[in-house]
Amino acid sequence: MLEDKDQERTSIEKLGEFGLIEHLTKDFKIEQKSTIKGIGDDATVLDFKDKKAVISTDLLIEGVHFDLSYMPLKHLGYKAVMVNLSDIYAMNATATQITISIAVSNRFPLEALEELYAGVAMACKTYNVDLVGGDTTSSKTGLMISVTAIGEANEVNIAYRSGAKPNDLLVVSGDLGAAYMGLQVLEREKEVFKVNPNSQPDLEPYSYLVERQLKPEARKDIIELLKKLDVHPTSMIDISDGLSSEILHLSKSSRLGIDLYEDKIPLDPTVIAACEEFKMDSTLIALSGGEDYELLFTLDQKEFPKIKGNPNLTVVGHTTGKDEDAFLISRNNTKIPLTAQGWNSFT
Amino acid sequence: MLEDKDQERTSIEKLGEFGLIEHLTKDFKIEQKSTIKGIGDDATVLDFKDKKAVISTDLLIEGVHFDLSYMPLKHLGYKAVMVNLSDIYAMNATATQITISIAVSNRFPLEALEELYAGVAMACKTYNVDLVGGDTTSSKTGLMISVTAIGEANEVNIAYRSGAKPNDLLVVSGDLGAAYMGLQVLEREKEVFKVNPNSQPDLEPYSYLVERQLKPEARKDIIELLKKLDVHPTSMIDISDGLSSEILHLSKSSRLGIDLYEDKIPLDPTVIAACEEFKMDSTLIALSGGEDYELLFTLDQKEFPKIKGNPNLTVVGHTTGKDEDAFLISRNNTKIPLTAQGWNSFT
C-alpha cells in the first residue's frame, strides 16, 4: 500500500520532530477531567483524586507484531491503542489517557503517519481516552509503536490476576480464535498475491475473522456490563496470548487449580468453518491462537444468576483447590494438563 | 563488546517472553508507597492520593540515539532511565516509578540484557524509583528501549513551560556542552579504532566529557536544592536538545521574549579545551549540543538572593516582554535571534 506511487508523499524531515508531533496531534481533544496537562510540556500532569492510577505499556514492532502488506496503517493505529486499553479493562478499570511513541524509517512519508494517527484518533474518540503525550523519532528500519495506557479505578473494584478463590466460576467474554483464523486467511491471500499479483481476493466469507484480526475491539462494554449487572470479578486478565496461557497466569497468580471444559469454549460458526477449511483444531486455536482481546475472569458462584443467559458471557470452567494445576476437560471427559502454547515473539 | 566470543551466551529464546521478564526483574524491589501493584499483572496500580501524577515517555533506538560500539549496555540502561527522569524533574516533580519496554534482535544474548537491566537497576536504586512494568519482545534488527517515567507533585509546585512572567531571571543548573564534546571524543576514537584495532585510546583527559555522554545524571539534586532554598521556578524545562531549543520552548509556551547572555553560559574548562582542540565554537556547542540533562528555569527576580552565589546555579539571562522573541546577546553586545539547531533525529 505504501508503494503506491500515485499517493502524495511529504518527507517527514521537512517538519522536524516538534513540527511532526504538533502536526499529528493538533486535532486531538482533551475530554477527561483527570487530564490537567496533555501534550506540550516535559511531562503530562494527571489528577486521579481518590482513585487509583492504572498503567500499562506495550511495544509493537513491524515484522514481529504486524505486517504492513495486509495491515492498513489506520487499522494499525487503532489496534495499537486497543491492545493497551484491553490491559486497563482487564483490571476492571476505566481507560482515561494514552501516550503513543513511534519510531519510523524514512520510507514512511508524512501521509502514512497521518493514516496511523487517524486510527489512533478514532480509537481515542470511540473509547473516550485522551492522547496526552509520546515521542516521535526516526528508526534505521521499519516502524515501531510504543503505547502506554492510563486508567483509573476505585480500589475496591480493581480485579487482579491473584484474587480468584476456590470454586469460583471461570467466565469468558465474546468468542475465541477468530483473530488467529483471520491471520491465517490474510497470510494465505498474501501468498496467492505473491504468485499472481492480479488476483482479487474474496474475503467476504471471512469478514468476521479478518475484522477481528485487523480491527479488534477492547471490551470496555464488558466492564460497563459487569458494573451494570453489579458483578464483581475476583480476578481478571485479557486474552492476548490465547486462553491457555491466560488461564495459567490466573492459576499461578491466584495459586489455584482451574478446570476448563472444552465443550464450553465459545466459538463463532465462521471460526469452526475456517478451522475445517484450514484443517486446524478449533479447540487448539482458541487455546493458543491469541489476539482475541476478550476478557477472562473468575466469579463467586453466588453471582451466577446475574450473568446467566447473557449472550456476551460464557461460563467455561471453574477454579479448583489451592496449589492445584490447570486442566482442559476434553469432550470425551479426559483431563489434559494445560500448557502455555500462546504466542511468543521470541520463538 | 558484544562480539567478544569468550563471553557466556545464553539464547533469549530458551526463556520465552514471560520467563525473560521474570528473570530480568526478579531483583528489583518496590520502595515507593505509591506503588500498589508493580510487575506481574495486566497493568500497574499506583496511588497518588492528593498529589498529581506526572508522566513522561521516550524511545531510544540503536543507530539513532546510541551506538553500542562505544556505549556499554549497562550505561545505556542507566542513561535510558535518566533521560526520562529528567523530564519528571523538569516539572519540579518527584520521580516515583518507571516502566521499561525493550525490543531486541537475536544477536543479543541473555547476558547482554542482564547488563542493560543492571544499569536500569542502578538508576532505580540511586534515584529511588520503582520498576513497575514494561514489555519485552523481539525485533528484526537492533535494540529499542521505551521508558515511561512516572512521578508525583503537589499542584502548586508543578513548573510548566508556560509559567514564565516578564522580567523573570533565566537560570541554568550545572554546565553545558560536555555531553556533546564527549560524543565527539568517542566518535574520534571509533574512527581511530577502525584504522588501527590495536590502538589504546587515552580517554583520561576527557573523562568528564565522556562520563557526561555515557553516564548522565538527571538533576534530582537540583529539585531538592530548590525545595531546600524555598525557590519556586515560574517555568522549567530540561536541556536535552541544547540550550537554544529549550529557550525557544519556554519563550513560545510562555509567550514571552528571552534574552540569553553569551558570557554567562556556564562551560566546564575541559569543554573549552576540547572545543579548541576540535576547532568548534563553545557557545554553539552549549546552544545546540544537547544531552546535557541540566535544568533551565525562570524565577521571579525577588528570589535572586536565595540562589546568589550557589555554585550549582547560573543566571544566564532574563525574560523580556509579551510576545517578543528570544535572542543571544553576544560577548560584543550584538543581539542575535536564537534558532533551534538542537538535535533532531530526522535530519
What is the secondary structure topology, with strand pairs?
Two copies of one chain form a homodimer.
Chain A: H1 16-25, E1 35-37, E2 44-46, E3 52-61, H2 73-89, E4 94-104, H3 110-127, E5 130-138, E6 143-153, E7 169-173, H4 178-195, H5 207-214, H6 220-228, E8 235-239, H7 243-254, E9 256-261, H8 269-277, H9 282-288, E10 294-299, H10 304-307, E11 313-322, E12 326-329, E13 335-337
Characterise the protein shown here.
Two copies of one chain form a homodimer. The radius of gyration of chain A is 21 Å and the shape is globular. In chain A, helix 2 (73-89) runs parallel beside helix 3 (110-127). Chain A has helices spanning 16-25, 73-89, 110-127, 178-195, 207-214, 220-228, 243-254, 269-277, 282-288, 304-307, and strands spanning 35-37, 44-46, 52-61, 94-104, 130-138, 143-153, 169-173, 235-239, 256-261, 294-299, 313-322, 326-329, 335-337. With 347 residues, chain A is an alpha+beta fold. Chain A folds into two domains: 12-156, PurM-like, N-terminal domain (60s Ribosomal Protein L30, Chain: A), CATH 3.30.1330.10; 169-337, PurM-like C-terminal domain (Phosphoribosyl-aminoimidazole Synthetase, Chain A, domain 2, Alpha-Beta Complex). The first copy, chain A, has a seven-stranded mixed beta sheet, with helices on both faces. A four-stranded mixed beta sheet of chain A has the order 3-6-4-5. In chain A, 32% of the residues lie in helices and 25% in strands. At the A-B interface, helix 1, strand 2, strand 3, helix 2 and strand 4 of A face helix 1, strand 2, strand 3, helix 2 and strand 4 of B. Strand 3 of chain A pairs antiparallel with strand 2 of chain B.
